[in-house]
Amino acid sequence: MRLQGKVALVTGAGSGIGRAVALRFAREGARVACADLVAEAARETAEAITGAGGQAVALALDVTDAAGCERAVRATLEAFGRLTTLVNAAGVRGERRDPTPPPDEWRRVVEVNLTGTYLASRAAVHALAATGQGTITNIASIYGLVGGSLSPAYAASKGGVANLTRQMALEWAPRVRVNCVCPGVIETPMTAPLLADPAWREAAIRRHPLGRLGQPEDVAAAILYLASDEAAFVTGVALPVDGGYTAA
């Protein structure tokens, strides 16, 4: 019960890493507001938590909508009375193998991944700071640290998340700790179209020295640490959770 007494708002909680985080946080004692663009997916995650004896609410949220982010924070406070933890897991990827993505795609990817992270954090920071022990954990990527085979929009947005994390950590210390994780290739619905290509999947596995792809639960475990009191002296970190990918 490493998050006993904590209240978490998790964006992108309807699937993939966000869902794994919401479920793990609940098992560790947190009350969880499960937010997702797809309201039904958020509801399914919340029902999985309450069905296992935890406490959760479901929220429909478009992270590119500043007013929507503020409403999600208010709804979390109304449900649970406080907010100690924000996890910005909402994200999209661009089309792979396109070195010149069209402007509409560029804007969509950057607005969700980078601007959405900022807007949700901006909406939550005062509530988090009021507890004196607030935490924000963002989801960057190995492709925010090194080049790769995904779209320039995705890499740029995730590189922005990593540096935004550092800046927020400096601006909002000491009352809010801000960190991010940089996952390797994780088996989620977002990566499923890429991994359906056997050659791409095999190449991705070879790039990870641990010899496998990551699972959402691998990333959730790292985020659990960063959100817990065990990481009380950790802020401004971009933590690779990548099976050794960026060591090469």
Could you name the key traits of this structure?
single chain; Rossmann fold; 47% helix; 8 helices; 248 residues; 7 strands; alpha/beta; seven-stranded parallel beta sheet
* Main β sheet profile: 7 strands, parallel
Q: Could you name the CATH topology?
A: Rossmann fold
CATH superfamily membership, which one? NAD(P)-binding Rossmann-like Domain
* Structural class label: alpha/beta
CATH class: Alpha Beta
Instruction: Please give the CATH architecture.
Output: 3-Layer(aba) Sandwich
Note the overall shape: globular
The number of helical elements comes to 8
**Overall pLDDT, averaged?**
96
What share of residues is helical? Answer: 40-55%
**Element order: H for helix, E for strand:** EHEHEHEHEHEHHHE
Note the beta-strand portion. 15-25%
Please tell me how large the radius of gyration is. 17 Å
Q: Work out the count of structural domains.
A: 1
- In total, the number of strands is 7
Question: What is the first-to-last residue Cα distance?
Answer: 36 Å
Spatial order of the strands forming the largest sheet: 3-2-1-4-5-6-7
Unreliable residue stretches: none
Commentary on this structure:
- The chain is α/β, with parallel strands linked by helices.
- It has a single domain, classed as 3-Layer(aba) Sandwich (Rossmann fold), CATH 3.40.50.
- 47% of the residues lie in helices and 15% in strands.
- It has 8 helices and 7 strands; from the N terminus they run βαβαβαβαβαβαααβ.
- It has helices spanning 16-27, 39-51, 66-80, 103-131, 152-172, 192-195, 198-207, 216-227; strands spanning 7-11, 31-36, 56-60, 85-88, 134-139, 176-183, 238-241.
- The chain has a 7-stranded parallel beta sheet with strand order 3-2-1-4-5-6-7, sandwiched between helices.
- α4 links the parallel β4 and β5.
- α1 (16-27) packs parallel to α2 (39-51) and α1 (16-27) crosses α8.
- The radius of gyration is 17 Å and the shape is globular.
- The termini are far apart.
- The mean pLDDT is 96.
